[in-house]
Amino acid sequence: MDEKITTTSTEDQKTQSLQAANQSLRTAVESRIKRQSVSPYMSKRDKMISGDPSAAAHAACCVEHDYVPGLRPGTDKFMGILDEVRVMHIRKTQDYGKATDALSNIRESADIINTQAYAGAILRMSDKMHRLRAFFHNGKTEFDGIEDTLLDLCAYSAIALVLFREEQSS
């Protein structure tokens, strides 16, 4: 006996409404990223990675000259990912940091829970690891994808190291 699953008109409307809202959010985020201004402190390679068309012609040159000749295969890809993390950090600190302290949001969050600033960054890394664990169990993510999550982990590792070294030197 074939059972047909039927949905009500209200359920269909909710599903369509949720899908439209998700698409709207994705479009807004993509639009915001595209219109973000490029910092005057960015290198030509940073501008190329961030999508600045004025640096596109420079792309081939940058790829050839940014890395030390003689590196083993794969190192250029690793360095490229570090470049992505650097550009992401510059962009995100415009949203989260203060003009006088790019890491102020991490420091202030740690103060709220009465812990060291580097521990606050590690706590955020833990959140990203929970997202990865959910991905391994569910096979999907709802918002940030796996690449975004891994880039965030890399950035938070660097931030934690900066904050740890600051604390050690004080």
Q: Report the mean per-residue pLDDT as an integer.
A: 79
Distance between the termini: 74 Å
Residues in β-strands, percent: under 5%
Structural class, from helix and strand content? mainly alpha
Helix content: 55-70%
Structure summary, number of beta strands: 0
Total helices: the number is 7
Structural shape = globular
Q: Tell me about the largest β-sheet.
A: none
Spell the H/E element sequence.
Answer: HHHHHHH
Computed Rg: 21 Å
Parts with pLDDT < 50 across at least 5 consecutive residues: 37-42, 52-65
Question: Explain this structure to me?
Answer:
- Residues 37-42 and 52-65 have low confidence and may be disordered.
- It is built from 7 helices and no strands.
- With 170 residues, it is mostly helical.
- The protein has helices spanning 9-35, 44-49, 59-65, 75-96, 104-112, 117-138, 146-169.
Entry keywords:
170 residues; mainly alpha
Concise overview:
With 170 residues, this protein is mostly helical. The protein is built from 7 helices and no strands.
Secondary structure topology:
Elements lengths: L8 H27 L8 H6 L9 H7 L9 H22 L7 H9 L4 H22 L7 H24 L1
Helix pairs in contact: 4-7, 5-6, 6-7
